[in-house]
Design brief:
The chain is of the alpha+beta class. The protein has four helices and six strands, in the order βααββββαβα. It has a single domain (2-128), classed as S-adenosylmethionine decarboxylase. It has helices spanning 10-13, 16-29, 86-97, 118-128, and strands spanning 2-5, 34-43, 51-58, 61-68, 73-80, 101-105. The relative contact order is 0.24.
Length: 129
């Protein structure tokens, strides 16, 4: 999960089509597969909360983004049982939105309830699916 501030390209934060393209590029760029979406909706009932929320459902779980163009800020959550490199997420995000300041980072290991061989556990889980 990332919280970003001082996003250079605030106009992209305010463009649903750019957000859809970003989500598609992000998840394919980190080696995941799209099951459904992306879907982007706009919150415009309260100027203090104005922004866009997007989600893409993955075979591996989901990715979601919430943008606040007037504050040049966004929140990003990539939730997956498949391993990925956070540095790739940062690189792809910078390519889409320009420079930014990482305000908050929170990385949680998924699948910790499995045995120490998470790849084998994941393969067995996929076989049962």
């Amino acid at each position: 999960m990332l919280r970003l501030g001082d996003v250079e390209n605030g106009r992209s934060l305010d463009c649903p089509e750019a957000i859809e393209q970003y989500l598609t590029g992000l998840v394919t760029g980190i080696g995941m597969r799209i099951l459904d979406g992306p879907h982007v909706s706009t919150e415009d009932s309260d100027p203090a909360r104005y922004g866009h929320s997007g989600v893409v459902v993955l075979y591996e779980s989901h990715a979601a983004v919430h943008t606040y163009p007037l504050m040049r800020a966004m929140f990003l959550d990539v939730f997956s049982c498949k391993s990925f490199d956070v540095a790739d997420v940062v690189r792809i995000t910078a390519a889409a939105f320009g420079s930014f300041r990482i305000v908050e980072t929170n990385v949680l290991d998924r699948g910790t309830h499995w045995s120490t061989d998470a790849e084998s556990e994941l393969a067995a889980w996929h076989a049962d699916r």
